[in-house]
Amino acid sequence: MTELGEEHYPAWGAVSTVNVDPLWEAAGGTLPPPEYVRAVPTGPLTPIVLAATTSAGVLHAGISYRTTAFSVADVESIAARIVDRARHLDA
Q1: CB-CB contact of 21 with 54 (8 Å)
Q2: Percentage of residues in the chain with pLDDT exceeding 90?
Q3: Who has the most CB within 10 Å: 1, 26, 62, 81?
Q4: Quick one: pLDDT at residue 13?
Q5: Among 31, 30, 39, 37, which residue's Cα sits nearest to residue 56?
Q6: Bond from prior residue into 33 cis (ω within 30 degrees of 0)
């Protein structure tokens, strides 16, 4: 993994969350909303972003990353650890 120091990347990641259900209902949609997957942009200050979205009680997660900062193997490892930890959360 590329070294991410303060001098280069003061913030190296972000999490963006959205609960679609109340937004969908407020817009006049019938519940449950359809499957909802979204994309999130990265940037020079956030070379990796996790997008966590809930829709109809289901959590959808995606990762966007800059290939100049992370390799595919890095991101696959990060994703696997996130999934492992999520499986061990109390319901």
Answers
A1: yes
A2: 26
A3: 62
A4: 75
A5: 31
A6: no
What are the pLDDT digits (tens) for 22-42? 988 899 988 888 888 888 888
- pLDDT, tens digit, 9 for 90 and up, residues 38-54: 888 888 778 899 998 88
Using left for φ > 0, alpha for ψ between -120 and 50, and beta otherwise, residue 79 falls in alpha
Q: For the CA atoms of the chain, what is the radius of gyration?
A: 16
Length in residues, the chain: 91
Q: How far apart are the first and last CA of the chain?
A: 33
Residue carrying structure tokens 């290939």? 67
Buried residues in 32-59 as b, exposed as e (16+ CB within 10 A): eeeebeeebebeeebbbbbbbbebeeee
Q: What is the pLDDT of residue 71?
A: 95
Tokens of 11: 């913030």
Rounded CA-CA distance 52/55 in Å is 10
